[in-house]
């Protein structure tokens, strides 16, 4: 177990170290800013061809593609949760709000971010990308600051937190593109 774990860490190290030659330093700089650097490295290195063959725009586009897949998975989960709670008004209200925020708001924000990326208006990319996370936060925390967050024991908060991590990477790279 310990052995397997250390070989995994070593392989990961080799993988990261082998990226170093081309733009590993940049990859380091990006992922060190994120709350979960391991997740960040894994995600960016999972781009077909590897992160080292990609430029910053490719990486943002890839992270947006991942976000879209995540949002689709999460939308399906929310629809299931709504079906499963026909008599629980609080749960239904919460998940209906989340359906609007995730299925509608967050997808729209991904589309806007993609459009801004294509038009290379990097100076507003960051704020538009933050809009994706706002939609997710509104689902989890409620619509207004006075709302008590719904005590959600489903998988939804974990799914939402993964999406937030992906969006965080998009925001970090957006800041670099704006330089
Ligand atoms: C989101 O995508 C990432 C990367 O493919 C994956 O690890 C994660 O499980 C996905 N999460 C959801 C909720 O779809
Ligand atoms: C949330 O619900 C779980 C399971 O029903 C319960 O154990 C926990 O105490 C609740 N937390 C809050 C803050 O109400």
From TrEMBL:
One of its GO terms (molecular function) is pectinesterase inhibitor activity. Belongs to the PMEI family. This is Pectinesterase inhibitor domain-containing protein. Residues 1-21 form the signal peptide. InterPro entries: Invertase/methylesterase_inhib, PCW_Enzyme_Inhibitor, Pectinesterase_inhib_dom, PMEI_plant. It comes from the Eukaryota. Keywords: Disulfide bond, Signal. Residues 27-142 form the Pectinesterase inhibitor domain. The lineage of its organism: Eukaryota, Viridiplantae, Streptophyta, Embryophyta, Tracheophyta.
